[in-house]
Amino acid sequence: MLRAAQLALSVPGSPVLEVKDTGGGPDGAAQAARDAIADGAKMILGPLTSTETAQVAPIARRAGVPVLAFTNDQAQSQPGVWTLGITPGQQVRRLVGYARETGHLPLAALLPDDDFGKAMAEELNRIASAEGQQPPFLRMAGPGAVNIDAAVTDLAGTATGPDQPLPFGSILLGATGADLKVYAQAFDDAHIDRSKVQILGPALWIDPASGSSAMVGGWFAAPDPDARRDLIRDYSAKYKESPPPRADLASDAASIARVLSGQGRVNAAGLTQPAGFTGVDGWFALMPDGLVRRSLAVFRVDRLRAVKISDAPPGPGATAAPPGG
After folding, report:
1. Does the pLDDT at position 36 exceed 50?
2. Residue by residue, what is the 3-state secondary structure of 234-290?
3. pLDDT band for position 322 (50/70/90)?
4. What's the rounded Cα separation, in Å, for the pair 97 and 221?
């Protein structure tokens, strides 16, 4: 991540990048933020984790220093603090939109009873509330067959009869790993025909190691890997190896700092410009409340690899200078 940030700031006229070690913990992150602000920092890139961000945020906000954190915990978003990681909420919003476009609503959700699943559930309820709709059918399920079977049985009970289809066009799952095979078997046992209801899942399904092969035909939303080509080329040329996915966030954060510094707009107005930014993983925009809107592609799980079925929508207007490069 440091290498990617340094690469983004290697353009002449870029601001100076001062590196502060957080020690990998919240207390160290808080001290690093104090030191950075004392040294005159105009923007903080990082920290990496949710707990570190929670400690850095009040320090930076009091000083009026914006934070581009690398966590994907949307709960840490607030005015002046943006979380650049790909959040569960961003994935849900894109999937719901695509399900609507393709006639696969209404939607039911069977989600893991953990922070990730709760974040997905919160976004589903937020969307329903904003659109004046009733909350979706939603069950939180712990891991393992007993919990998953109970959630699927509840879902199957929404059908009007034993031979009737579910009253849903799609089912959102948040599961990965061995639990996906359990869900597949539970659907079969409950006579839920996956050819008649679309299965949706998390961006983690892009990795075959996620167990996504148990849900062949399922859809998920994620950044388009093709968007990373320039970073892969430039990073590999300089460092003789490919950049890991987290390098994308550091590159984008540093590129935003470079672009806005050159414009003399390292402030809330510059960061939240409506045109947004074209980053390593595609278009995104920083909202005044700290949320980040992202343009994601939609993929279908195939037996060998994920297949893109819908391009990431373009951002509204293209007036912002791309941060990459």
Report:
1. yes
2. HHHHHHCCCCCCCHHHHHHHHHHHHHHHHHCCCCHHHHCCCCCEEECCEEEEECCCC
3. very low
4. 11
